[in-house]
Amino acid sequence: MTTLLFSNSLWGQEPSKKDSEKKEKTKQAVETLLPKPIIVINFASVERILQDIDLIFELAERPEIAEIASSSLANVNDLEGIDQNKNMGVEMYLKTGLLPQPVFIMYLPISKVRSFIETLEAVIPGDEETIKKDPNRDDLFIVNGRRGESLIRMQDNYAHMLFRGGESEETLDLITTRNFDDPTQQFQNLTNNYDLAVKLDLSGVPELMRTTFLGFFRTAIETQLQQRDGESDSAYELRRMSGKQNIEGIEYFLNEAQELVLGGYIDTEQKRGIIDFLIKARPNSDLARDIKNIPGKASYFSVVTSRKNLPVAASASMNIARRERESYHAYLTYFEKQLAEKLLAEDERLQNTNSVKQFFGPIKSMVKKGHLDLFAQLVATPSRKFALIGGIKVTPSANLSAALLDLIERVDKLPDNKAKIFTNAETVQGIALHQLQPDIKSADDRQKRFLGGVPSLYVGADSQVIWFAMGTDIAVSALNEAIEQINTASPEARKEQRTAPFQIEFHMRPWLGLFSEEEIDQSGVMQVLDVAFEKDNDLIQMTTQPTETGVRTQIQVDEGYLKLLGLSISKQFDRNQERRARRERERQKKKAKDNQNN
Prior knowledge:
Blueprint: H1 2-13, H2 17-31, E1 39-43, H3 46-59, H4 63-71, E2 88-94, E3 102-109, H5 113-123, E4 130-133, E5 140-145, E6 148-155, E7 158-162, H6 169-177, H7 183-186, H8 188-193, E8 196-201, H9 207-223, H10 233-256, E9 257-267, E10 272-281, H11 286-292, H12 302-305, E11 312-319, H13 322-343, H14 346-349, H15 355-369, E12 371-380, E13 386-393, H16 400-412, E14 420-428, E15 431-437, H17 445-451, E16 456-461, E17 465-471, H18 473-487, H19 491-495, E18 502-507, H20 509-512, H21 517-521, H22 524-532, E19 539-546, E20 550-557, H23 559-597
Antiparallel strand pairs: 1-2, 1-8, 2-3, 3-7, 4-5, 5-6, 6-7, 8-9, 9-10, 10-20, 11-12, 11-18, 12-13, 13-17, 14-15, 15-16, 16-17, 18-19, 19-20
Helix pairs in contact: 2-6, 3-4, 3-23, 9-10, 10-13, 13-15, 15-16, 22-23
């Protein structure tokens, strides 16, 4: 009896050949997928998104549209059964192989399974698909329909679902056998920091797959870098150099970066929108060291880069990574060679004292030392016209100003030069500016409105800065004011770094100041912009700063842009309502006319 029971127990434990084959297939199927998702799209929660919508239409003074958006959830069973306070999203896994294929899985937080299934059935179009519980497992539901079978896996109060159309034996086995992590914990950082985020996890890509992809990519790009028919040698050289730099940059990034995150959220207290782009470097990698060294010393131009309410302003005071220095140096050498061939005689090119070398030398030296320091600003002048000014700091050189003058004089003598050139046309703070004016008889309407007339380019240099301005004579005055502000600043003020290592700002209100009230009233778009923006709510600011593990590029948008979004959607909503009402009136008229005829 004991022997019989034991043999029966062994028989009961020994899998059948069919079950063994199924388990082996399942094991092989799971192993053909990478262990963690490569891409994640994460929504913080339905409630957070609804709060954002409420704020946008509150700013636009159209709260009723937010209510309409909320009530529209009735079309999907009010999302009954879905926990509206927890995160949800999509994961993309990769199948291993020579050409990896994506597998998309949605994760949804579940508060009540039965209600969730009813909501899902309400979402599925038509009545050809059914959702039934697996008779052998409490955590599986089977979706049957005209497109075949799919599965829903319940785990940790989340439903994990394949995108329809992506079903295969391997992907179905993935749903039934994989132990999914709890998305609440797994993506906690994304949920805490962003309303919506996309994460690319490069650490999950095996080295062989990455190397194979880069090999295919390099081969594909290099085939496009052959010299084309009719392409000049200089144009080919520049295109090939640029292409190789791009290839090397992408390879460096894919090998050195660990993850990327693109995320956004609305700060409901500050009433502004934030978009972050984060790069996390692999520990102890070259990229990690390069990012850590990004912040440079205080900008030479820091006194003027902190000016507020400019139409557009850009500045950079940052250390350049070694590989970037080599790239910049290669471009400078190329342009130096092209300019020398254009302006210098053959014997002059051999001289180390020629003006081209003396001009490019301080710039190349600055790049070699590894610190980039420059600024550019679009300034609104008292005449309500714009002027572009800027400067780039270079390694000090007593010959820089004379070299620039010689180059401009040589350009003026070129037979194909069509610009009007005036050397030493203006002087600002003891710096001679040379004027290059395009061969244009009169300014067009756009030039008159924005710049006040035909714009000229003014360039000049002292021993350590190359200065420029673009516009009419008001641009010269604007540049003079900026240089004077720098020269008269105290040593303490000049050492203070007031901006991020890289920063761009844009203000909308100064642009509206170019138009009269009558012009604004006559334009529907201008009216919306005028309502949305005030002097203190019109800023878009982009900054780049290192973090503890990488680098963050952040874009902040003021309240006015959220209000603009709400106003724009409201205008479109009103137009749609008007069209529907007009169609209904026409339908009623036609119906009444048909009744009269009958």
